[in-house]
Design brief:
308 residues, mainly alpha, Ribonucleotide Reductase, subunit A, 15 helices, globular
């Protein structure tokens, strides 16, 4: 049994079962922030610091919207398409009935996280009069799927399962830091806190699931998986730059200034440092299960610049 209910009681503790709808309230005029500035990579760039205070506040709001929009799409279009395979007994490995039930519980969690994220966007946008910049998830999804298509062209279901194992075992600062930051709007802190509580269990589930999946693979399949995983980690963590460009342009910055900010903020070295930090738990999982011991695997992870 993977992610056993003994670790927590979903029916009493899951956000979708117990969490109230989070409402914005009257905090917009109190100096609370839409998003922690220290989690916005371009916030301290000289070009951004020169902008009027109201404009900078709108940038934070759009950064929040981008984060929440990504969540709404990723949870339903990536996590749940793989979770549905596990829950439906179509994941390609043997799983027991309780594991399938746990997968369906996660499926409900992720749909609820998407609902809450979109609800927060609608409330904050309406109250602040900061328009939501149109967001296109397709480039991210295409990039992620292409990794699997190249490494596992005859096993798309396996590639989708690996996508979710990677993403659900990553550790980013957002889920940990936002709930603890009293400067941020309460609706944002509470929504992220509830999400983080559920994701803690999801992390355990998918870590255990990968151990079972890996144990049931042939030697040849393990070689192919070990070469797919580095690309999935990088694709999951590469910054989405199009929404940032759109937000900075909406802030009144010209094309030259926007490109200067992008070059300075998303340099190859800074991006790699962030990827290695966020993937440290995922890498530990792969080390513990023997992925890096597969012939050629260490070279593939090193080529992806994931090894320190």
């Amino acid at each position: 049994m993977i992610g056993g209910s003994g670790k927590r009681s979903w029916y009493e503790r899951a956000g979708v079962r117990t969490g109230p709808r989070r409402l914005l309230g009257d905090e917009l005029g109190t100096g609370r922030l839409f998003f922690p500035p220290d989690l916005v990579p371009y916030w301290d760039h000289p070009r951004v610091r020169e902008l009027p205070e109201r404009t900078r506040g709108e940038i934070l709001a759009r950064h929040l919207f981008h984060y929440l929009e990504f969540t709404t799409h990723f949870e339903t279009r990536v996590v749940n398409r793989a979770t549905d395979r596990i829950a439906g007994g179509r994941c390609g490995i043997d799983v027991d009935p309780e594991t399938r039930l746990n997968a369906y519980r996660i499926y409900c969690d992720e749909g609820y996280h998407s609902l809450c994220s979109l609800d927060v966007i609608a409330q904050v946008s309406a109250a602040s009069a900061v328009a939501v910049v149109p967001y296109d998830f397709e480039p991210f999804l295409t990039r992620l799927d292409q990794v699997g298509q190249r490494a596992l062209p005859d096993a798309p279901a396996l590639a989708q399962l690996l996508q979710v194992v990677v993403f659900e075992t990553l550790i980013t600062a957002i889920l940990k830091d936002i709930p603890q930051n009293p400067r941020v709007l309460t609706i944002v802190r509470d929504t992220v806190r509830e999400h983080a509580k559920d994701e803690g269990w999801h992390h355990v589930f998918f870590s255990q699931f990968f151990r079972e999946l890996w144990a049931q693979q042939s030697r040849a399949s393990r070689r192919r998986i070990s070469r797919c995983l580095p690309g999935l980690i990088r694709s999951s963590l590469l910054p989405e730059q199009a929404p940032v460009r759109a937000s900075l342009t909406r802030a009144g910055l010209g094309a030259e200034a926007v490109e200067e900010i992008m070059r300075d903020t998303y340099s190859h070295e800074r991006v790699n440092t962030g990827i290695r930090a966020a993937s440290r738990h995922t890498m530990r999982l792969f080390e513990e299960t023997g992925v890096l011991g597969v012939p050629g695997a260490s070279d593939a992870f090193a080529a992806a610049e994931l090894l320190s």
